[in-house]
């Protein structure tokens, strides 16, 4: 069993080197186009703007359909960001 390379770490607790290697090089949340659509979908998914008498869509109150659609949109945005924009140095 081979040990670690001699200069893999400068010391036992070289935190700067550890975090430089542990953190992915590109975080999806740090990209400009990721946060605004997620925040918009979250804001639209809360039924605060429907009032007391929401119309019926597909036999359900409209806010239910909108909330389900917003949930699907947030899932799709997150999946897209994870698959396309989130790359480790090892990949």
SSE class: mainly alpha
Quaternary structure annotation? single chain
Question: Helix count?
Answer: 3
Q: How many strands, what sense, and barrel or not for the largest sheet? A: 2 strands, antiparallel
How does the overall form come out from the CA principal axes?
elongated
Helix content: 40-55%
Report on this structure.
With 91 residues, this protein is mostly helical. It has a domain at 26-85. The protein is built from 3 helices and 2 strands. The protein has a two-stranded antiparallel ribbon. Helix 2 packs antiparallel against helix 3. The radius of gyration is 22 Å and the shape is elongated. The protein starts with 14 loop residues before the first helix and ends in a 6-residue tail after the last helix.
How are the SSEs ordered, and which strands pair?
Layout: H1 15-22, H2 35-45, E1 56-57, E2 60-61, H3 62-85
List keywords for this structure.
91 residues, 4% strand, elongated, mainly alpha, single chain, two-stranded antiparallel ribbon
Briefly, what is this?
By secondary structure, the chain is mainly alpha-helical. Helices cover 47% and strands 4% of the residues.
């Amino acid at each position: 069993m081979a040990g670690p390379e001699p200069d893999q770490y400068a010391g036992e607790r070289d935190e700067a080197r550890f975090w430089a290697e542990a953190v992915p090089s590109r975080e999806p949340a740090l990209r400009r186009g990721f946060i605004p659509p997620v925040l918009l979908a979250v804001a639209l998914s809360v039924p605060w703007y429907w009032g007391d008498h929401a119309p019926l869509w597909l036999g359900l109150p409209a806010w239910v359909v909108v909330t389900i659609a917003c949930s699907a949109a947030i899932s799709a945005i997150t999946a897209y960001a994870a698959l396309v924009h989130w790359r480790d140095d090892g990949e």
